[in-house]
């Protein structure tokens, strides 16, 4: 395959120490001289053929004739007059621009002529690929595979120089395996102070990336869930992180109970309440395990509100964004209320759960991804954990692909009375059990879940304890 003249020089391949001078090269590109009177008409036709290079203007004055402009064209697209489409050629000929009008001029490309992805791709051996990066405030977060370790310094330097307003480049050292799911990171280059701020859904969130996690790719998903809530609704955020659901929901008029096991998340959540002027009467904060929060605080608060005339029109939402293990916490809802307590909930007042999980994609014999397999897996995880079959009104949404053959999926569903009052489900739900042999078909009326992350927040996995009915 012939290398594009617009590509960085091949001599930079394998570079582990950045040498900007080696990126300098001279190329010849096609140009057209066009009179100023014709510019507005001709440029409409030529727009898609312009030479687009960082810090280079494709339309420049003609030093020999002040009444003309020099139009620099992309050499990958234009090698002669016939390279232009028929309609474009017609426009050019109408203004006496012919094959003879096409000239070639030298231009000098430097390190500043390319974007960071082009620079990194040119440096790495052809068989190695750079997967990309995320920007969290002033921090660039990269996931580097082991085979790219030799190039980590040069990658970090290129990113820091090319990305405006960033001060640090970090990479994840190993998988998130600790209780609090905060990252162990290595600073590749730049400032070792990883305190930063991000803006999302009209709110500002401050954090220290060493202590808490933030995923900028969940911006749209956070917005989707927030749109499902109206002022006066109640949100129980089981794994709240630093507040990407809780803070904007409270600002939008919801009453929020937010919980996280990680004390650092709680510290930054409180800080973000102050930053966004959210008061404690609007957002209550808890620092507990997910199971304890559900079986104690969520239970008591639901019972209080379901009998309060002030909350007659309120809907109750429960967000569970801990994709690795959130489905195991669904057992905490089993037998949450006694028979009298559960009778207080009409079908339209039952809590709506928004649960996130990771599932593997599946390929058919030809290697093609099977459409809908990830969603079916996610639904099965929830059904197995609860021992029921979800109704058709449940919403299963594929949020994003997080790795090869791995998706993040959300399942939104109404918690049925059968689960909430069933303290002895058909299969005992111990942590060593992975299948429920029988599932119940729900026959009650369900409220529609309309289709109108946080960081992967944190919690531990504790075995559910059977709550005393007299509690």
Q: Would you give an account of this structure?
A:
This protein has 471 residues and is α/β, with parallel strands linked by helices. The chain has eleven helices and 19 strands. A hairpin with a 2-residue loop joins strand 17 (395-403) and strand 18 (406-414).
Query: Percent helix among the residues?
Result: 10-25%
Uncertain regions spanning at least 5 consecutive residues: 425-471
Largest beta sheet: strand ordering:
13-12-11-14-15-18-17
- Overall 3D shape: elongated
Largest sheet: 7 strands, mixed
Distance between the termini: 73 Å
| Oligomeric organization of the protein chains | single chain
* Mean pLDDT value: 88
Q: Which band does the percent of strand residues land in?
A: 15-25%
SS summary, helix count? 11
Structural class, from secondary structure content? alpha/beta
Order of helices and strands: EHEEHEHEEHEEEEHEHEHEHEHEHEEEHE
Radius of gyration: 29 Å
Number of DSSP strands?
19
Layout of SSEs?
Layout: E1 25-35, H1 39-46, E2 59-62, E3 65-72, H2 86-94, E4 102-109, H3 116-123, E5 133-136, E6 139-142, H4 152-162, E7 168-172, E8 185-190, E9 195-200, E10 203-208, H5 219-227, E11 234-237, H6 246-251, E12 255-259, H7 263-275, E13 283-286, H8 290-306, E14 316-320, H9 339-343, E15 352-360, H10 373-386, E16 388-389, E17 395-403, E18 406-414, H11 417-420, E19 440-441
Parallel strand pairs: 6-7, 11-12, 11-14, 12-13, 14-15, 16-19
Antiparallel strand pairs: 1-3, 1-4, 2-3, 5-6, 7-8, 9-10, 15-18, 17-18
Helix pairs in contact: 1-2
